[in-house]
Amino acid sequence: MKKLKSEARGIDLVFYCPKENHYSFNALAGALEKNPAGAPRLLFAENKAEFLKTAGALPRKGRAAVLAFSFFTSQKNDIRVLLEKLPSPKSRNFTLIAGGAHPSGAPGETLAMGFDYVFQGEGEISLPEFLKSLSEGTPPKEKIIKGKPLSCLDTYPPVSLKWGRFGPLEITRGCPFACAYCQTSFLFGVKPRHRGLENTLHYVRLMNGRGLRYVRFITPDAFAYGSADGRKINLEAVKGLLEGTRAIIKDRGALFFGSFPSEVRPEHVTKETLALTRRFADNKRLVIGAQSASPRVLKAIHRGHSADDIYNAVELCAKYGFGADVDFIFGLPGETEKDIEETFSFILQILPSGARIHAHTFMPLPGTPFENKKPAPLTKKTEKFIRDLSARGQAFGQWEKQRAVNT
Protein backbone atom coordinates (compact mmCIF):
# COMPACT_ATOMS: atom_id res chain seq x y z
CA MET A 1 0.00 0.00 0.00
CA LYS A 2 1.36 3.40 -0.94
CA LYS A 3 1.57 5.94 1.84
CA LEU A 4 -1.15 8.55 1.64
CA LYS A 5 0.07 12.06 1.06
CA SER A 6 -0.63 14.67 3.67
CA GLU A 7 -2.38 16.95 1.18
CA ALA A 8 -5.22 14.47 0.62
CA ARG A 9 -8.39 16.50 1.16
CA GLY A 10 -11.12 13.95 0.93
CA ILE A 11 -11.96 10.27 0.88
CA ASP A 12 -13.64 8.11 -1.73
CA LEU A 13 -15.05 5.25 0.32
CA VAL A 14 -16.31 2.15 -1.49
CA PHE A 15 -18.56 -0.22 0.44
CA TYR A 16 -18.65 -3.74 -0.97
CA CYS A 17 -22.20 -4.56 0.03
CA PRO A 18 -23.77 -7.64 -1.53
CA LYS A 19 -27.22 -8.54 -0.28
CA GLU A 20 -25.95 -10.42 2.80
CA ASN A 21 -24.16 -7.30 4.13
CA HIS A 22 -26.56 -4.46 3.36
CA TYR A 23 -27.65 -3.92 6.94
CA SER A 24 -24.16 -3.24 8.31
CA PHE A 25 -23.42 -0.64 5.68
CA ASN A 26 -26.78 1.08 6.07
CA ALA A 27 -25.88 1.80 9.70
CA LEU A 28 -22.34 2.91 8.85
CA ALA A 29 -23.63 5.24 6.14
CA GLY A 30 -25.98 6.72 8.72
CA ALA A 31 -23.08 7.26 11.11
CA LEU A 32 -21.02 8.99 8.42
CA GLU A 33 -23.99 11.16 7.53
CA LYS A 34 -24.21 12.30 11.14
CA ASN A 35 -20.46 12.70 11.55
CA PRO A 36 -18.94 13.28 8.07
CA ALA A 37 -15.32 13.31 9.27
CA GLY A 38 -12.87 13.22 6.39
CA ALA A 39 -15.57 14.36 3.92
CA PRO A 40 -16.19 10.89 2.48
CA ARG A 41 -17.85 10.35 -0.85
CA LEU A 42 -19.63 7.01 -0.54
CA LEU A 43 -19.88 4.50 -3.35
CA PHE A 44 -21.86 1.28 -3.00
CA ALA A 45 -20.87 -1.79 -5.01
CA GLU A 46 -23.62 -4.40 -4.93
CA ASN A 47 -21.70 -7.25 -6.59
CA LYS A 48 -18.17 -8.38 -7.46
CA ALA A 49 -18.14 -7.02 -11.01
CA GLU A 50 -19.37 -3.61 -9.89
CA PHE A 51 -16.87 -3.57 -7.06
CA LEU A 52 -13.89 -4.36 -9.30
CA LYS A 53 -15.00 -1.76 -11.85
CA THR A 54 -15.41 0.90 -9.17
CA ALA A 55 -12.09 0.06 -7.53
CA GLY A 56 -10.34 0.20 -10.90
CA ALA A 57 -11.40 3.83 -11.41
CA LEU A 58 -9.84 4.98 -8.13
CA PRO A 59 -8.17 6.94 -6.71
CA ARG A 60 -9.16 10.33 -8.04
CA LYS A 61 -6.65 13.15 -8.04
CA GLY A 62 -6.21 14.76 -4.65
CA ARG A 63 -8.31 12.19 -2.85
CA ALA A 64 -7.61 9.02 -0.92
CA ALA A 65 -9.43 5.81 -1.80
CA VAL A 66 -10.66 3.29 0.77
CA LEU A 67 -12.28 -0.06 -0.03
CA ALA A 68 -14.40 -1.38 2.84
CA PHE A 69 -15.66 -4.91 3.55
CA SER A 70 -17.93 -6.36 6.22
CA PHE A 71 -18.37 -10.12 6.20
CA PHE A 72 -19.34 -13.27 8.08
CA THR A 73 -17.25 -16.38 8.57
CA SER A 74 -19.32 -18.14 5.91
CA GLN A 75 -18.17 -15.50 3.40
CA LYS A 76 -14.45 -15.45 4.13
CA ASN A 77 -13.45 -17.75 1.28
CA ASP A 78 -15.39 -15.70 -1.27
CA ILE A 79 -13.80 -12.50 0.06
CA ARG A 80 -10.34 -14.04 -0.17
CA VAL A 81 -10.93 -14.91 -3.84
CA LEU A 82 -12.18 -11.39 -4.56
CA LEU A 83 -9.11 -9.81 -2.94
CA GLU A 84 -6.87 -11.85 -5.22
CA LYS A 85 -8.33 -9.96 -8.18
CA LEU A 86 -7.15 -6.62 -6.81
CA PRO A 87 -3.65 -5.21 -7.45
CA SER A 88 -0.90 -6.59 -5.24
CA PRO A 89 -0.15 -4.70 -2.00
CA LYS A 90 3.02 -3.18 -3.48
CA SER A 91 1.17 -1.60 -6.39
CA ARG A 92 -2.01 -0.52 -4.59
CA ASN A 93 -2.95 3.10 -4.27
CA PHE A 94 -5.91 2.51 -2.02
CA THR A 95 -6.50 1.30 1.53
CA LEU A 96 -8.31 -1.96 2.31
CA ILE A 97 -10.33 -2.12 5.52
CA ALA A 98 -12.56 -4.82 7.01
CA GLY A 99 -15.07 -5.06 9.82
CA GLY A 100 -18.07 -7.13 10.78
CA ALA A 101 -18.50 -10.46 12.52
CA HIS A 102 -15.56 -12.45 11.17
CA PRO A 103 -12.91 -9.67 11.15
CA SER A 104 -13.96 -8.68 14.68
CA GLY A 105 -13.46 -12.21 15.95
CA ALA A 106 -10.33 -13.00 13.90
CA PRO A 107 -8.47 -9.72 13.26
CA GLY A 108 -5.09 -11.38 12.75
CA GLU A 109 -6.43 -13.80 10.16
CA THR A 110 -8.21 -10.93 8.41
CA LEU A 111 -5.01 -8.87 8.21
CA ALA A 112 -3.27 -11.92 6.75
CA MET A 113 -5.91 -12.01 4.00
CA GLY A 114 -4.47 -8.72 2.72
CA PHE A 115 -6.35 -6.02 4.59
CA ASP A 116 -4.53 -2.94 5.80
CA TYR A 117 -6.76 -2.30 8.81
CA VAL A 118 -9.30 -4.35 10.74
CA PHE A 119 -12.11 -2.87 12.83
CA GLN A 120 -13.27 -4.83 15.87
CA GLY A 121 -16.77 -4.40 17.17
CA GLU A 122 -18.97 -1.36 16.60
CA GLY A 123 -17.87 1.08 13.91
CA GLU A 124 -20.11 4.15 14.23
CA ILE A 125 -17.42 6.05 16.15
CA SER A 126 -14.20 4.40 15.00
CA LEU A 127 -14.84 4.56 11.24
CA PRO A 128 -15.36 8.35 11.06
CA GLU A 129 -12.31 8.86 13.27
CA PHE A 130 -10.26 6.63 10.98
CA LEU A 131 -11.37 8.47 7.84
CA LYS A 132 -10.54 11.79 9.46
CA SER A 133 -7.00 10.58 10.16
CA LEU A 134 -6.61 9.52 6.52
CA SER A 135 -7.91 12.83 5.21
CA GLU A 136 -5.32 14.59 7.36
CA GLY A 137 -2.55 12.34 6.05
CA THR A 138 -1.90 10.72 9.45
CA PRO A 139 -3.18 7.14 9.20
CA PRO A 140 -3.21 5.13 12.46
CA LYS A 141 -0.17 3.07 13.34
CA GLU A 142 -2.31 0.34 14.87
CA LYS A 143 -3.61 -2.10 12.30
CA ILE A 144 -6.36 -3.43 14.56
CA ILE A 145 -8.80 -0.66 15.50
CA LYS A 146 -11.06 -1.44 18.43
CA GLY A 147 -14.54 0.00 18.22
CA LYS A 148 -16.13 2.09 20.91
CA PRO A 149 -19.47 0.63 22.02
CA LEU A 150 -22.40 3.01 21.82
CA SER A 151 -23.82 3.77 25.24
CA CYS A 152 -27.10 4.71 23.54
CA LEU A 153 -28.26 3.45 20.15
CA ASP A 154 -30.28 6.64 19.68
CA THR A 155 -27.00 8.53 19.16
CA TYR A 156 -26.70 7.29 15.57
CA PRO A 157 -29.34 6.62 12.92
CA PRO A 158 -30.02 3.05 11.77
CA VAL A 159 -30.42 4.24 8.15
CA SER A 160 -29.00 6.96 5.89
CA LEU A 161 -31.21 9.64 4.40
CA LYS A 162 -28.36 11.30 2.50
CA TRP A 163 -27.35 8.16 0.64
CA GLY A 164 -30.79 6.58 0.55
CA ARG A 165 -29.79 3.47 2.47
CA PHE A 166 -32.86 2.00 4.15
CA GLY A 167 -33.76 -1.37 5.57
CA PRO A 168 -34.68 -3.09 8.83
CA LEU A 169 -34.22 -0.88 11.89
CA GLU A 170 -31.81 -2.10 14.54
CA ILE A 171 -33.57 -1.81 17.89
CA THR A 172 -31.35 -3.89 20.20
CA ARG A 173 -27.68 -4.79 20.60
CA GLY A 174 -26.34 -7.27 23.11
CA CYS A 175 -27.63 -10.54 24.51
CA PRO A 176 -27.41 -11.84 28.09
CA PHE A 177 -27.26 -15.54 27.26
CA ALA A 178 -23.74 -15.83 25.77
CA CYS A 179 -24.42 -19.06 23.88
CA ALA A 180 -21.13 -20.85 23.29
CA TYR A 181 -21.41 -20.95 19.48
CA CYS A 182 -22.74 -17.39 18.94
CA GLN A 183 -20.83 -14.12 18.52
CA THR A 184 -23.55 -11.70 19.57
CA SER A 185 -22.81 -11.49 23.31
CA PHE A 186 -19.06 -11.45 22.73
CA LEU A 187 -19.21 -8.66 20.13
CA PHE A 188 -21.90 -6.46 21.68
CA GLY A 189 -21.95 -7.41 25.35
CA VAL A 190 -24.40 -9.22 27.62
CA LYS A 191 -26.40 -6.15 28.64
CA PRO A 192 -29.01 -5.30 26.02
CA ARG A 193 -29.01 -1.77 24.63
CA HIS A 194 -32.30 -0.78 23.07
CA ARG A 195 -33.13 2.00 20.64
CA GLY A 196 -35.70 4.20 22.36
CA LEU A 197 -39.31 3.99 21.30
CA GLU A 198 -39.60 7.57 20.08
CA ASN A 199 -36.31 7.34 18.21
CA THR A 200 -37.42 4.12 16.52
CA LEU A 201 -40.80 5.55 15.55
CA HIS A 202 -39.05 8.66 14.21
CA TYR A 203 -37.29 6.54 11.60
CA VAL A 204 -40.45 4.58 10.86
CA ARG A 205 -42.10 7.92 10.05
CA LEU A 206 -39.19 9.06 7.92
CA MET A 207 -39.24 5.87 5.89
CA ASN A 208 -43.01 5.91 5.66
CA GLY A 209 -42.83 9.47 4.34
CA ARG A 210 -40.57 8.25 1.56
CA GLY A 211 -43.02 5.54 0.59
CA LEU A 212 -41.18 2.76 2.44
CA ARG A 213 -44.01 1.15 4.36
CA TYR A 214 -42.63 -2.33 5.04
CA VAL A 215 -41.10 -2.35 8.51
CA ARG A 216 -38.74 -4.96 9.93
CA PHE A 217 -36.44 -4.88 12.93
CA ILE A 218 -32.94 -6.18 13.70
CA THR A 219 -32.67 -7.65 17.20
CA PRO A 220 -31.36 -10.85 18.82
CA ASP A 221 -34.80 -11.43 20.38
CA ALA A 222 -37.79 -9.36 19.26
CA PHE A 223 -39.86 -10.20 22.34
CA ALA A 224 -37.08 -8.89 24.61
CA TYR A 225 -37.38 -5.33 23.27
CA GLY A 226 -37.20 -2.84 26.12
CA SER A 227 -36.20 -5.50 28.66
CA ALA A 228 -33.62 -4.28 31.17
CA ASP A 229 -31.84 -7.62 31.31
CA GLY A 230 -33.01 -9.33 28.10
CA ARG A 231 -34.49 -12.18 30.15
CA LYS A 232 -37.72 -10.77 31.56
CA ILE A 233 -40.26 -9.58 28.99
CA ASN A 234 -41.22 -5.90 29.01
CA LEU A 235 -44.68 -6.31 27.55
CA GLU A 236 -45.49 -2.59 27.62
CA ALA A 237 -42.37 -1.80 25.58
CA VAL A 238 -43.26 -4.45 23.00
CA LYS A 239 -46.81 -3.14 22.82
CA GLY A 240 -45.61 0.44 22.43
CA LEU A 241 -43.33 -0.52 19.56
CA LEU A 242 -45.93 -2.53 17.68
CA GLU A 243 -48.85 -0.21 18.33
CA GLY A 244 -46.81 2.88 17.47
CA THR A 245 -45.49 1.40 14.24
CA ARG A 246 -48.94 0.27 13.13
CA ALA A 247 -50.36 3.74 13.83
CA ILE A 248 -47.80 5.18 11.39
CA ILE A 249 -48.02 2.71 8.51
CA LYS A 250 -51.73 1.99 9.03
CA ASP A 251 -53.00 -0.47 6.39
CA ARG A 252 -50.79 0.89 3.62
CA GLY A 253 -47.80 -1.23 4.56
CA ALA A 254 -46.73 -4.29 6.51
CA LEU A 255 -45.07 -4.82 9.87
CA PHE A 256 -42.92 -7.91 10.43
CA PHE A 257 -41.99 -8.83 14.00
CA GLY A 258 -40.11 -11.87 15.26
CA SER A 259 -39.25 -12.91 11.73
CA PHE A 260 -36.19 -12.35 9.53
CA PRO A 261 -33.83 -10.63 10.23
CA SER A 262 -34.68 -11.22 13.88
CA GLU A 263 -35.96 -14.16 15.88
CA VAL A 264 -37.48 -14.93 19.28
CA ARG A 265 -36.41 -17.13 22.14
CA PRO A 266 -38.80 -19.99 22.84
CA GLU A 267 -39.42 -19.12 26.50
CA HIS A 268 -40.50 -15.63 25.39
CA VAL A 269 -43.24 -17.04 23.19
CA THR A 270 -46.25 -16.49 25.44
CA LYS A 271 -49.96 -15.89 25.04
CA GLU A 272 -49.34 -12.19 25.63
CA THR A 273 -46.50 -11.71 23.13
CA LEU A 274 -48.33 -13.73 20.49
CA ALA A 275 -51.57 -11.81 21.02
CA LEU A 276 -49.74 -8.50 20.47
CA THR A 277 -47.97 -9.82 17.39
CA ARG A 278 -51.23 -11.16 15.94
CA ARG A 279 -52.99 -7.85 16.63
CA PHE A 280 -50.42 -5.48 15.12
CA ALA A 281 -48.02 -7.42 12.85
CA ASP A 282 -48.54 -8.96 9.42
CA ASN A 283 -46.17 -11.94 9.42
CA LYS A 284 -47.73 -15.38 9.57
CA ARG A 285 -44.57 -17.12 10.80
CA LEU A 286 -42.15 -16.61 13.67
CA VAL A 287 -38.46 -17.57 13.76
CA ILE A 288 -37.67 -19.46 16.96
CA GLY A 289 -34.12 -20.20 18.07
CA ALA A 290 -33.79 -23.77 19.35
CA GLN A 291 -30.48 -25.21 18.04
CA SER A 292 -30.97 -28.66 19.60
CA ALA A 293 -33.60 -30.73 21.38
CA SER A 294 -31.08 -32.70 23.44
CA PRO A 295 -31.15 -31.49 27.08
CA ARG A 296 -27.46 -32.32 27.39
CA VAL A 297 -26.51 -30.28 24.33
CA LEU A 298 -28.75 -27.35 25.29
CA LYS A 299 -26.94 -27.18 28.62
CA ALA A 300 -23.50 -27.52 27.01
CA ILE A 301 -24.10 -24.62 24.61
CA HIS A 302 -25.61 -22.42 27.35
CA ARG A 303 -28.95 -21.90 25.60
CA GLY A 304 -30.78 -21.22 28.86
CA HIS A 305 -34.02 -22.94 27.86
CA SER A 306 -35.35 -26.49 27.66
CA ALA A 307 -36.70 -28.68 24.89
CA ASP A 308 -40.11 -28.33 26.54
CA ASP A 309 -39.85 -24.55 26.04
CA ILE A 310 -39.36 -25.13 22.31
CA TYR A 311 -42.29 -27.53 22.10
CA ASN A 312 -44.59 -25.19 24.02
CA ALA A 313 -43.57 -22.26 21.82
CA VAL A 314 -44.43 -24.14 18.62
CA GLU A 315 -47.77 -25.28 20.04
CA LEU A 316 -48.66 -21.76 21.18
CA CYS A 317 -47.74 -20.37 17.77
CA ALA A 318 -50.16 -22.78 16.13
CA LYS A 319 -52.98 -21.78 18.51
CA TYR A 320 -52.48 -18.12 17.58
CA GLY A 321 -52.30 -18.78 13.86
CA PHE A 322 -48.53 -18.65 13.40
CA GLY A 323 -46.26 -21.14 11.73
CA ALA A 324 -42.87 -21.61 13.39
CA ASP A 325 -39.52 -21.66 11.58
CA VAL A 326 -37.30 -23.36 14.15
CA ASP A 327 -33.52 -23.01 14.01
CA PHE A 328 -31.50 -26.18 14.57
CA ILE A 329 -27.71 -26.51 14.36
CA PHE A 330 -26.46 -29.93 13.31
CA GLY A 331 -22.94 -31.08 14.13
CA LEU A 332 -22.53 -29.16 17.37
CA PRO A 333 -19.28 -30.08 19.15
CA GLY A 334 -19.57 -33.25 21.19
CA GLU A 335 -22.97 -34.13 19.73
CA THR A 336 -23.54 -37.87 20.09
CA GLU A 337 -25.77 -40.29 18.23
CA LYS A 338 -28.18 -40.19 21.18
CA ASP A 339 -28.30 -36.39 21.05
CA ILE A 340 -29.12 -36.31 17.36
CA GLU A 341 -31.73 -39.03 17.73
CA GLU A 342 -33.43 -36.94 20.43
CA THR A 343 -33.44 -33.98 18.05
CA PHE A 344 -34.82 -36.07 15.16
CA SER A 345 -37.62 -37.41 17.36
CA PHE A 346 -38.44 -33.94 18.62
CA ILE A 347 -38.55 -32.45 15.12
CA LEU A 348 -41.00 -35.13 13.99
CA GLN A 349 -43.22 -34.20 16.95
CA ILE A 350 -43.44 -30.49 16.07
CA LEU A 351 -43.88 -30.79 12.30
CA PRO A 352 -47.66 -31.51 12.55
CA SER A 353 -48.08 -28.13 14.28
CA GLY A 354 -46.90 -26.32 11.18
CA ALA A 355 -43.22 -26.02 12.09
CA ARG A 356 -40.48 -25.84 9.49
CA ILE A 357 -36.85 -26.59 10.27
CA HIS A 358 -34.25 -23.96 9.49
CA ALA A 359 -31.20 -26.19 9.23
CA HIS A 360 -27.65 -25.02 9.99
CA THR A 361 -24.32 -26.80 10.20
CA PHE A 362 -22.14 -25.79 13.12
CA MET A 363 -19.30 -23.46 12.14
CA PRO A 364 -16.70 -22.47 14.75
CA LEU A 365 -17.01 -18.69 14.91
CA PRO A 366 -14.02 -16.63 16.07
CA GLY A 367 -14.33 -14.89 19.39
CA THR A 368 -16.71 -17.48 20.86
CA PRO A 369 -16.05 -20.25 23.42
CA PHE A 370 -16.46 -22.76 20.59
CA GLU A 371 -14.06 -21.06 18.17
CA ASN A 372 -11.54 -23.93 18.40
CA LYS A 373 -14.08 -26.74 18.61
CA LYS A 374 -14.42 -29.19 15.76
CA PRO A 375 -17.88 -29.87 14.35
CA ALA A 376 -19.30 -33.28 15.06
CA PRO A 377 -19.42 -35.14 11.73
CA LEU A 378 -22.75 -35.14 9.92
CA THR A 379 -23.67 -38.74 9.29
CA LYS A 380 -25.38 -39.96 6.16
CA LYS A 381 -28.47 -40.51 8.29
CA THR A 382 -28.45 -36.85 9.34
CA GLU A 383 -28.00 -35.65 5.77
CA LYS A 384 -30.82 -37.88 4.57
CA PHE A 385 -33.08 -36.67 7.37
CA ILE A 386 -32.57 -33.00 6.42
CA ARG A 387 -32.88 -33.65 2.69
CA ASP A 388 -36.08 -35.66 3.11
CA LEU A 389 -37.62 -32.81 5.12
CA SER A 390 -36.46 -30.29 2.54
CA ALA A 391 -38.03 -32.30 -0.28
CA ARG A 392 -41.35 -32.11 1.56
CA GLY A 393 -41.02 -28.36 2.17
CA GLN A 394 -40.52 -28.92 5.89
CA ALA A 395 -36.88 -27.77 6.06
CA PHE A 396 -34.69 -25.15 4.43
CA GLY A 397 -31.38 -23.40 5.02
CA GLN A 398 -27.73 -23.02 4.03
CA TRP A 399 -26.48 -26.03 5.99
CA GLU A 400 -24.57 -27.51 3.05
CA LYS A 401 -22.80 -24.22 2.26
CA GLN A 402 -21.95 -23.82 5.94
CA ARG A 403 -20.50 -27.31 6.08
CA ALA A 404 -18.32 -26.54 3.05
CA VAL A 405 -16.72 -23.64 4.93
CA ASN A 406 -15.52 -26.10 7.57
CA THR A 407 -13.63 -28.23 5.04
Structure commentary:
The chain contains 15 helices and 16 strands. The chain has 407 residues and is of the alpha/beta class. The radius of gyration is 22 Å and the shape is globular. Mean pLDDT is 93; it is low at 1-8.
Features:
single chain; disordered N terminus; four-stranded parallel beta sheet; 407 residues; alpha/beta
Question: Could you write a compact summary of the structure shown?
Answer:
With 407 residues, the chain is of the alpha/beta class. 36% of the residues lie in helices and 17% in strands.
Shape verdict: globular
Taking the alpha carbons of the first and last residues, their distance comes to 32 Å
- Percent helix: 25-40%
The main sheet orders its strands as 2-1-3-4-5-6
The percent range for strand residues is 15-25%
The helix-and-strand class reads: alpha/beta
Q: Tally of extended strands?
A: 16
Low-confidence stretches: 1-8
Q: What is the C-alpha radius of gyration, as a whole number of Å?
A: 22 Å
Describe the secondary structure blueprint for this structure.
Elements: E1 10-16, H1 22-34, E2 40-45, H2 48-56, E3 63-70, H3 76-83, E4 95-99, H4 101-105, H5 107-112, E5 117-120, H6 126-135, E6 144-146, E7 169-170, E8 172-173, H7 184-188, E9 193-194, H8 197-209, E10 214-215, E11 217-218, H9 235-249, E12 254-255, H10 271-280, E13 285-291, H11 295-300, H12 307-319, E14 323-330, H13 337-350, E15 356-361, H14 380-391, E16 395-396, H15 399-406
Parallel strand pairs: 1-2, 1-3, 3-4, 4-5, 5-6, 7-11, 10-12, 13-14, 14-15, 15-16
Antiparallel strand pairs: 8-9
Helix pairs in contact: 8-9, 9-10
